[in-house]
User: What shape does this take?
Amino acid sequence: MKKLLLLTTGLIITTTSIGQIDATLLRKRHVDTTGTMLNMDAVYNRPFLSLGKLPVALGGYAEANWQHLGTDGITEGHQFQMRRLTLFVASSIAKRIKFLSEIEFEDGTKEINIEFAAVDVELHPLLNVRSGIIMNPIGAFNQNHDGPKWEFVDRPVSATQLLPATWSNVGFGLYGKLFKKNWVFAYEAYLTNGFNDRIIDNREGKTFLPAAKKNRDRFEESFNGVPLATVKAAVRHLKIAELGVSYMSGIYNKFEDDGLQLDKKRAVNVLALDGNMVVPELHTSINAEWAWIFVDVPETYTQQYAKTQYGGFIDIIQPCHRGKIFGFENSTINIACRLEYVDWNVGKFRETGGNIADHLWGIMPGISWRPSAQTVLRLNYKYYNKIDMLGNPPARTAGFQCGIATYF
Assistant: This one.
């Protein structure tokens, strides 16, 4: 399974999700339709409702589900969850100046986050300025994460437990597109606040980038005064696929305090590949993402804190019926499967030369029904096999999940 996942994601051919919003279905709703949509356009590729002469457009999505999971025979029984309620507010301030915000309420109101709130100034198709709270474009899922676009209840493990999903920071940068016949070339480049030392000082007891999201101060100040740089380049052939490569680099430790040198500058670097395509004739969607993480961990830390990590996922989605179902004219039934692999600690023990484990692989088959392009009802079977750092017998998690996600 591990070799299959590495080989498949190594090919990194991916596809646009079946749930991508079709502007022809929105009518009274409005989305950004300037040019061909890429993953970088996901923040505007959403349905918005304009109300009369009000200067703003509104939208959002919600996710709710049921699940029954067990790990090694131990289960918490039936669980009902309201995972997310997300609100969008957008405005065209003036010609070629627009604003969009995304506010998310997770698990009821357990967490409330401003995930995006930025002003875009369009100077030229190849030169646009963005400033505010920005989604760092590392991989594709971080920007294109809306629940109604996906056939699975859970987000990918590599996007939430390896990379910090919905990772956003305050900053500014540039983005642009170039069109050449059937080709679209695009780029993004941002400087923002960034990581902190929680990535190696956390409750997980390992190198864990998502722990940096707990630092709410990053929206008002930098942890160490050094910007986090994130760049991405993408290319799309209109009839074949989109491929993207992204890179994120910054200093995560506080190396100086009031002029006193505390430590050397320690970097975290992330490289990610992503893409999307639909197989002709079969209309099969294949979505994938793979990331490598490199962290300068102090030598005084034990080997449970990894210097190298990697992982990713691949989604395969096959439409098996399109047509009228229960009075819904444009329904689609999809069969889907997700393969996942994450290695939180790539390396060997210094004392024995044996491999450090701490990895997970999973498979998640499912079926979904889309009564419209904006709404998905999905049923998944989840199976995860997780091995600890010492390579002990795996902990196996399995069970069913059922839920609904919809734009509104």
User: Anything to note?
Assistant: The longest strand covers residues 308-325. The radius of gyration is 21 Å. The chain has one domain: 2-407.
